[in-house]
Amino acid sequence: MNALWEFLSMSDANVRYVTLGSVLLAASSAVVGCFTVLRKRALVGDAVAHAVLPGVCLAFLLSGEKNPLLLLLGSFVTGWLSLIAIDTITSKSRIKEDTAIGLVLSVFFGVGILFLTAIQHSGNENQSGLDKFLFGSAAALVGQDLITFGAVATLLLLSVLLLYKEFKLVSFDMAYARTIGLPVRALELVLTTLTVLAVVVGIQSVGVVLMSAMLITPAAAARFWTDRLGGMVTIAALMSAVCGAAGAFVSFTAPAMPTGPWIVMILSLLAILSFLLAPRRGLVARLLLQRRVRRQMMRENILKTLFLLGESKNEQGLSYTRKQISERRKMPLLTMQESLRVLRSKGLVTHGSSGWSLTEAGMKEAQRVVRLHRLWELYLTEYLQVASDHVHEDAESIEHVLTPELEKRLEELLNYPTADPHQTVIPQQP
Predict the structure, then answer these.
(1) Cβ neighbours of 361 (radius 10 Å)
(2) Which residues cross the membrane (predicted)?
(3) Are residues 289 and 267 in the same domain?
């Protein structure tokens, strides 16, 4: 608690620089990264992050000093050249974009390492710390760096705010954007420029190796929490800002711990939690949904089985034992017992001395399932020309997910049929 209080008070100017710089970098990168992810260009961010290294080295070789603005300019130029190279290779050859990205990334990064090695053996005293661009050194941020970060972050956020609707259209429906006359190519260039700019500014904090994680991870994590672009951008920015401050706190309490990698580690942890626990898209939520659907299908299959048993005897309302139900439709005994218990609690079946039978409400629900099954069988045979003896399995799967709207559409399309392909009566709606 004492460490947290000291961190929040931030009496040390360097702590303020590191914290604010990390927050600005993380939040602005996440906002731009949302559009990169939605445009399915996540790997491009990784390529740009590795391609800026030769630009940093060339700027140092030409100037002989570590002028932050010159280094940023050099990295921006090579970052842009890497994108041009990717587009050229993709459009002028048969090489796919992912292969082109791999080629450009490895070549540019290899050239950067070559230049960096040459600088280290040149004897130039100003080279000290230049290798920090590989892995970043947020703890070395000073007031001038904070001004640069603040200016670039403001530029990134203002650009997204002013062109939000246009970026949204380009990200989701480029064809429609062209149709209404938007300058799609120009907007793509602006988005690409913002991506390069976000990467270029971030390399001083987290380095070229980890910068793509700063760009992509928060956007990918935020996508699991919302279906709205505005919500995605907001969540990604807040998540990154919190992780930026958390990384600075870890570095403050344990000086041997680097800020940049810890920001990425915390971001990755939040991303994993999002993948697992997001309420609708998370893995746990999907597994629970699948479990509910399977149980619902099992209960509907039991209702349908009781109906078919009565139909085979031309008399509904009779009772049947679990053995008779199992002989008609194979299912695990424990699963059947649990499903029958739930059906009874819902008032769809009743249990007597001679077995299980459908209630009035259960009969209506069973007729609905059988009706959907036979309508779908008829559709498959008449419109998709599937043999009548091959449609049962498909109908078994689809009968549980057909909505009332689709049911009505099927009836209209089939001209309100009364029998399925096997000439079995289709139950009518009660």
Answers:
(1) 12
(2) 20-38, 43-63, 69-89, 101-119, 139-164, 184-203, 209-226, 233-256, 262-289
(3) no
Total domain count, the chain? 3
Secondary structure percentages of the chain, helix, strand, coil, to 5: 75, 5, 20
Which pLDDT value is given to residue 154? 83
Q: Are 101 and 43 in contact (CB under 8 A)?
A: yes
Q: Which domain holds residue 291?
A: 285-358
Q: Does residue 241 share a domain with residue 347?
A: no
pLDDT tens readout for residues 169-218 = 988 888 888 888 889 888 888 888 888 888 877 776 666 667 778 888 89
Same domain, residue pair 94 and 233: yes
CA distance 348 to 358: 6
CATH at residue 330: 1.10.10
Rounded distance, CA 27 to CA 268, Å? 15
**Nearest Cα residue to 236 out of 157, 129, 321, 322:** 157
For the chain, residues with pLDDT lower than 50 are 1, 4-5, 7-8, 11
Residue 71 contacts residue 58 (beta carbons within 8 Å) = no
**DSSP secondary structure string, 308-357?**
HHHHHTT-TT--B-HHHHHHHS---HHHHHHHHHHHHHTTSEEEETTEEE
Q: Does some domain include residue 4?
A: no
User: CA–CA separation, 365 vs 386, rounded Å?
Assistant: 28
Going by C-alpha positions, the residue among 198, 190, 187, 188 that lies closest to residue 153 is 198
Which of 425, 157, 207, 161 is closest to 308 using CA atoms?
A: 425
Q: What is the DSSP letter of 251?
A: H
218 and 324 co-located in one domain: no
User: Where a domain ends, among 278, 313, 331?
Assistant: 278
- The answer to whether residues 22 and 250 touch, using CB atoms and an 8 Å cutoff, is no
CA distance 168 to 229: 8
| pLDDT given for residue 197 in this prediction | 81
272/388 same-domain check: no
Question: 278, 295, 324 — which closes off a domain?
Answer: 278
**Given its phi and psi angles, is residue 179 left (phi above 0), alpha (psi -120 to 50 degrees) or beta?**
alpha
- pLDDT, position 126: 65
